[in-house]
Amino acid sequence: EGGTLAGQDIDKLVFGRAAEERPFVRVGGSTVVPANYATIACSPHLPIMAFMAVRLTAKQLGDCFELAAEDAIASIEGGIALTGPKFIPVDAEDKGETDIVVRSGNLVVLGEAKSSTTSQLPIFSELKAVEKAILQLVRRSSALSSHRTIKHAHGHELLPSEAVVENLVVTKHSFGGQIRNWISLHELEGVSAVNLIDVNGLELVVKCCSDFAELVAYLQFRRRFMASGGAATDELDLLWTYLSPADYRVRSVLQQF
User: Which pTM does this prediction carry?
Assistant: First the structure.
C-alpha cells in the first residue's frame, strides 16, 4: 500500500525487493516519480504482482502466475494449452498435478510456475527454492515418457511414441541472474533436464519464436547450452546466440550434450 515505506532511507531500499515491488515514489504529496526505472521498463510484472498480493491469497496469486505463463507459451502459433487441472500420474501416491501443458502435434512443453519469493534481497535469493519444482517436473516428465498419458478435466491425452517433450520452470525473477549461470545451476538436482527462465525472459522468447517448433528447438538449445557450462547476462544473449546464422557451429557442438 502507498506510504508503507515512508521515512525509510532510499539507499537501503534501492537494492532490495522493496524497490522492485514499489518502483514509484510520491514527492511533495501529489507528484509521483519513477525511482526504479529498470523494474518499470523491464520487469513491470513485479510491482503488479506485489499489488495483487495485497488483495489475493497466495494460492490465487500462484494461479494467476501459472495462467500468465501458460497463456504466453500457448500464444505462439500452433500452441494449444490443456486448460484446467492436469495430471501426469507418477505412482499410486503421486497424482502428478502439472501447472502447464502446451502442445502442438507431437511437440509438448511441460511447465511448473514458481511465483513465490523466499528473500527480500533479489541478488542473494535462495536459488535452492526452485529445486522442488525442478524435481517435481522431472518426475512427471519421466512418467510421461513411460505411459504417455496426460489426464485432464475433459478426459485424457495419449501422446504418440515419437513425442518430443521439453521441461520448463518459470520463475518470477532471475535470482540475480543465477538461472542463466551454470556455476549456480549445477548445484540443483535434476536441473540438466529442464530450462529455468524468468517470466520476463519467457515473454521475450515467445515474441521471437515464429512457431511452436521453433520454441521447442530453442528450449533444447538453451538447455544444452547451460548444461555445457554456459552463462548469459540476459535472455537476449541466449536468443542472439541461437538465432544468429553465424553461430550454427555452437549449436552443432551442443548436440553432444
Answer: 0.78
